[in-house]
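Progress note, sequence design subtask.
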């Protein structure tokens, strides 16, 4: 750029009105200094004056700051989720591998304290170690079998312990869940064998109860039959016997064709009831 061109540029600048020049300078200052900050939904702004954390926490919306003097650090206070895999030992010294799901959020009004005491890496520094410690402490109170059969109680004990631990760091627990429990292969096989044995024992008890019921039914039926025979014998009398004999004779007469046998011997057919007919 030659001297003549430089002289022309200076002349052009001198021709710009002073108010416009001032406005342009202010615009450039605002553009590069950015004296405002926007805090989005589910966020809080931590105010730093020359690096010192202030008590005021900025809520959602647009806020102005003093360039160079103030810096705004954005902290997320929405509900967040973390899944952590842990390894612990049960009360009977069985290795337990579990997967823990935790929903949590920063206490919004304490975002400045969290940043001041922990920083932005609070998950790695506080939450993950707390989950590991709580899972190990609670798992040690129960046997491996109880960790399975009492899973709701175990989960609640872990949630309460973790809530108390994280509360000191201004981190609130929203939900806690044991996603999965797993044990060693030897223990899993032992549990399966025990369940099989219990199922076989249950089947044997049911079969025994069925046999006993069937035996009781047979005894009851035999008693009923014996009672019926006893009542029949009690009701038999001389008159009843005579009545049955007369009925038999009548049936024989109804079947007789009126022809007397030509030969009557010891092997002949007897004439049944003729005496009774003659009497009539």
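Output:
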């Amino acid at each position: 750029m030659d001297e003549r061109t430089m002289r022309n540029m200076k002349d052009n600048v001198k021709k710009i009105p002073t108010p416009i020049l001032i406005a342009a300078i202010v615009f450039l200052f605002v553009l590069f200094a950015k004296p405002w900050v926007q805090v989005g939904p589910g966020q809080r702004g931590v105010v730093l004056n020359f690096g010192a954390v202030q008590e005021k926490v900025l809520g959602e919306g647009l806020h102005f700051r003093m360039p160079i003097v103030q810096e705004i650090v954005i902290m997320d206070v929405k509900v967040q989720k973390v899944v952590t895999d842990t390894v612990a030992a049960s009360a009977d010294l069985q290795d337990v591998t579990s997967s823990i799901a935790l929903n949590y959020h920063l206490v919004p009004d304490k975002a400045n304290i969290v940043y001041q005491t922990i920083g932005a890496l609070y998950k790695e520094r506080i939450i993950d170690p707390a989950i590991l410690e709580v899972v190990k402490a609670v798992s040690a109170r129960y046997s491996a079998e109880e960790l399975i059969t009492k899973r709701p109680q175990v989960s609640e004990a872990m949630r309460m312990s973790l809530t108390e631990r994280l509360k000191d760091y201004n981190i609130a627990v929203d939900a806690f869940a044991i996603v999965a429990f797993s044990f060693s292969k030897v223990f899993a096989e032992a549990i399966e064998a025990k369940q099989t044995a219990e199922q076989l024992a249950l089947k044997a008890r049911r079969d025994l109860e069925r046999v006993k019921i069937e035996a009781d039914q047979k005894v009851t039926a035999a008693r009923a039959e014996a009672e019926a025979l006893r009542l029949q014998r009690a009701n038999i009398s001389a008159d009843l016997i005579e009545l049955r004999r007369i009925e038999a004779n009548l049936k024989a007469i109804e079947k007789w064709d009126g022809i007397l046998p030509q030969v009557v011997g010891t092997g002949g057919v007897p004439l049944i009831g003729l005496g009774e007919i003659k009497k009539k």
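The chain has nine helices and eight strands. Work on this subtask will continue into the next period as scheduled.
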